[in-house]
Amino acid sequence: MNAREAVEKLHGGPVTGVRQGGGSIFLVTLDDGECVVAKHGVGDGATAAEAAGLRWLGESGDIPVPRVLGHDDEWLVMQYVPAGPPTAGAAEEFGRSLAKLHLRGAPAFGSPPPGGPADAWMGVAPMRNDTYPEWPEFYAERRILPYVRMCADQQLLSRDEIALFERLGEELPGVAGPAEPPARLHGDLWSGNVHWTGERVWLIDPAAHGGHREGDLAMLQLFGTSLLDTILGAYAESAADEGAPLAGGWRDRTPLHQLFPLLMHAAVFGGGYVKQALSAARATLA
């Protein structure tokens, strides 16, 4: 089934045009002028996980997300949101709203969105969501060590480097900072998934799960996000206003929370991501 057929099946209405929007994304125009997005899943459970994540993140209305129009095992059809330039007002609102969204919480660390599969995806990498009572155990067993093993299988890490990550997993409780309740995370909040429309920020392409809120903040910092200082400042202010200020030293723990995406990228793309992951691990243990 192609993008045209997917939209006709899952959303309905004759299609008058299809154009590729990049990778597995297609912009599909219906005969009434409506434009929708059709996205082809990267693997088993990918469309179900993304649809569940969008609904979960959007149910509170804190931050807008594209409306899910339909999905099956292969395709996800959703609302098209035209892009606009980043603005200071949108950045400030986004920071404050993200703090509120995180505080909506999750049933446990590693919990998938309601109705979402445990076997999900982050980009093109598989990601397992299993529930844990404590964040360090979840992070070590589901966000660090699986990708270390993937890197090891590709001979991207030496024995000593593997041992470094294993030691970090063992020492996580001592370097993770004060305990926090599970937050409602986007899970893949790099700049490409912060969708600016001029007036607002929308969230797209989530890898949503219950996790540590510093994880989303670390992702915002990893690859560079427009108006980052404004976003983080508004976030910290809003979190304090909500009675849940960020714990002291949260900026120092950024490398720890960047380990997951760095290791995932290393496992998929290799190259410099391996060195970045090693640097983040050493900085965490220093």
From TrEMBL:
What are the leading ranks of the lineage? Bacteria, Bacillati, Actinomycetota, Actinomycetes, Pseudonocardiales
Leader sequence segment: none
Mind listing the UniProt keywords for this protein, alphabetically?
Kinase, Transferase
Against Gene3D superfamilies, the record matches this protein to: 1.20.1270.240, Phosphorylase Kinase, domain 1 (3.30.200.20), Transferase(Phosphotransferase) domain 1 (1.10.510.10)
GO MF, any single term: kinase activity
Can you say what this protein is called?
Phosphotransferase
Alphabetical list of InterPro entries matching this protein: Fructo-/Ketosamine-3-kinase, Kinase-like_dom_sf
Q: What organism is listed for this UniProt entry? A: Amycolatopsis acidicola
Source domain of life: Bacteria
PANTHER family listed in its UniProt record: FRUCTOSAMINE 3 KINASE-RELATED PROTEIN, PROTEIN-RIBULOSAMINE 3-KINASE
Task: State the family named in the UniProt similarity comment for this chain.
Answer: Belongs to the fructosamine kinase family.
Q: Which Pfam family, just one, is annotated for this protein?
A: Fructosamin_kin
